[in-house]
Automatic annotation (TrEMBL):
Name by which UniProt lists this protein: GlcNAc-PI de-N-acetylase
SUPFAM superfamilies: LmbE-like (SSF102588)
Organism per entry: Nitrosococcus oceani C-27
Pfam families in the cross-refs: PIG-L
InterPro entries: GlcNAc_PI_deacetylase-related, LmbE-like_dom_sf
Length: 204
């Protein structure tokens, strides 16, 4: 979430929006460059996610703590729990990963089950927005300038020290967000901002 929409999340939190971050899996399948025992990695990932959310101004983080989504029972457990949570929270907007364009298989499953939860929940939700992580969007429906939030976004990503030891996610996303702002519109005479995130509407 911090990579794809950390700036937008920080902007919304600063404006007074109540944000609930839902983390489906416990991170045991993620890179483990330090060779920690699996349960140690799980606990560290949870602490990192909690600190990162705090940086962005997100006060509510819910951990489903599932080992993965590829296992059918885990997938259905996540879907059932997320459906109940959506009914309880009645959100105006939901953000998730794209169920086709993201190249990470677990990300696609997360986007898929989120879409299904919303389609099967008898509530009116304004929008289901996809953000980009392991798959860049060739088109988008919304662009958010995050100039004032880029520092918080980078700090939040920096809280995931166990993952940054393997891959420099911060460097990659900083360049992408800069590119999004510079090349936002072929017709513009000057960029409207310095950094931007993009979102695509997932049709229900």
């Amino acid at each position: 979430m911090e990579i794809g929409m950390g700036g937008t999340a920080a902007k919304k939190a600063a404006s007074g929006s109540h944000i609930t971050s839902v983390i489906l899996t416990d991170g045991r399948r993620s890179p483990n460059p330090f060779g920690w025992p699996e349960e140690t990695l799980v606990e560290i990932r949870k602490q990192e996610a909690t600190r990162a959310a705090r940086v962005l101004g997100i006060k509510e983080v819910i951990f489903f703590a599932l080992p993965d989504l590829k296992n059918t029972s885990h997938y259905h457990s996540a879907k059932e729990r997320l459906s109940e949570l959506i009914k309880q929270l009645r959100p105006e907007e939901v953000y998730s990963l794209h169920d086709h364009w993201d190249r990470h298989p677990t990300h696609r499953l997360a986007g898929q089950l989120t879409r299904k939860c919303i389609e099967e929940t008898p509530l009116f939700i304004d929008a289901l927005w996809a953000y980009e992580v392991w798959g860049l969007f060739s088109r988008w429906d919304r662009l958010e300038y995050i100039d004032d939030q880029i520092g918080k976004k980078m700090q939040a990503i920096g809280e995931h020290k166990s993952q940054l030891a393997s891959i420099p996610y911060g460097e990659g996303i900083l360049g992408l967000n800069r590119w999004r702002a510079v090349f936002a519109d072929p017709q513009q005479t000057t960029p409207q901002g310095v950094f931007a995130e993009v979102f695509f509407t997932m049709k229900l």
